[in-house]
Amino acid sequence: ATPTAVMVGTGVGATNGILIKGGEPLETTHKLKYVVFDKTGTVTHGEPRVSRVAMFVQSKVCSFIEIMAIAGSAENSSEHPIATAIVKYAKQTLKLESLAKVSDFQAVPGCGLKCKVSQIESILENVDKEAVKNRKNQFGSLRIKIDNPIFGNDGAMASKTYDVLIGNREWMNRNGLDVTPEMDQAMNEHEEQGHTAVLCAIDNRVAAMLAVADTVKAEAHLAVHCLKEIGLEVILLTGDNKKTAKAIAQQVVGIKRVFAEVLPSHKVKQIRILQTSGLKVAMVGDGVNDSPALAQADVGIAIGTGTDVAVEAADIVLIKNDLLDVYTAIKLSRATVRRIR
Ligand code: ADP
Ligand code: MG
Fold first, then answer.
1. What amino acid positions are annotated as catalytic residues?
2. Which of 32, 183, 252, 287 is least buried, going by the fewest C-beta atoms within 10 A?
3. Is residue 35 domain-shared with residue 182, that is, in the same domain?
4. Is any ligand 1 atom within 6 A of the Cβ of residue 72?
5. 81 and 26 together in one domain
């Protein structure tokens, strides 16, 4: 490639908020066949909100207030977008300023977390139980329905340490807990709408299901449409549940092919599998989890607001965080290569 054409190409990119790290990615981009999008934080905003809390009657281990205090405290040690949503919801619903003490915290990427929560009575001292009952339906545009709220025996909570697990079905099974048809059904209902459902077990009994809903970026559908129109195949790649991923991919953004329930460590393997065809693959992502896949892809594309690790691993950075810029980058690369030849 002539240095002049590369300079013009990267320059035009830069003025449009598309940072192309050199001539090689600029040239490879015109040969792309596959564009693989990460889901959470890339196709969606990555800021899910709690859309439902369902308590399982047979458990009766804890009241709604206790469950939210325990789940909120446990998730306060995690950085996952699901965790952020649960922490925020727990604090808002219970009007808590601080959360309870967590020990022995362990997070397994793509599965969930495990920890011990103690001293919840100290944070629940000032919770107004009537106020919680009245506030429970008022969150955002999403309807919060609380099934079978069992409010605790007033003020009589013993000082106790709870064993807590929060995560997907697989995570419960791995820890020796059964997911009953009732629980599975509760999760399905939300997954079919594109929400992510997780289970919360307290002292080895599955006590509740928490569903969180993330919103799809406004331009996602148009970006996918434009990419398909210029002959690319678009794929969604996520650690999330198959039903959730399919609902978002097919109904919302128009992506037919979905690789779901892919553990973070296996995202890079999925890219390699696509590359065995000999065709060029782009990966678009934002997270720390995505960076090995961004590096493996023929062209790694990071969202500008993504984590530093992702931005560093990528060949192209979308400064404006606009998914349509994936399309713009490909058009720009094609125009540049035409100029070179
Ligand atoms: P994505 O690729 O869409 O970013 P992840 O691989 O991060 O998804 O997560 C996959 C699944 O693992 C989640 O949908 C959830 O079921 C479970 N999970 C991971 N971390 C947590 C957590 N902190 N709390 C609850 N569930 C979690
Ligand atoms: Mg992500």
1. 38
2. 252
3. no
4. no
5. no
Q: How remote is the CA of residue 77 from the centroid of ligand 1, in Å?
A: 14
CA distances from 246 to 138, 193, 195, 250 (A): 29, 10, 11, 6
For residue 209, the ligand closest to its alpha carbon is 1
Q: Residue of the nearest CA to atom 17 in ligand 1?
A: 111
Cα–Cα distance between 293 and 296 in angstroms, integer? Answer: 5
**pTM, rounded to two decimals:** 0.87
Determine which residue's CA is closest to atom 1 belonging to ligand 1.
Answer: 239
150 CB-contact burial (10 Å; exposed 0-12 / middle 13-18 / buried 19+): middle
Q: Which of 173, 188, 213 is the last residue of a domain?
A: 213
Is any atom of ligand 1 closer than 6 Å to the C-beta of 196? yes
Same domain, 168 and 194: yes
Q: What is the ipTM of this complex?
A: 0.95
**Strand blocks (E) in 70-191:** 101-108, 112-118, 146-147, 161-167
Tell me, using a 6 A CB cutoff, whether residue 46 lines ligand 1.
no
69 and 184 housed in the same domain: yes
For residues 264 and 329, membership in a common domain is answered with yes
Domain range enclosing 71: 49-213
Q: Residue with the nearest Cα to atom 14 of ligand 1?
A: 240
pLDDT tens for 267-326 read 999 999 999 999 999 999 998 889 999 999 999 999 999 899 999 999 999 999 999 999
Q: What total number of domains does the chain contain?
A: 2
With a 6 A CB cut-off, is 63 part of the ligand 1 pocket? no
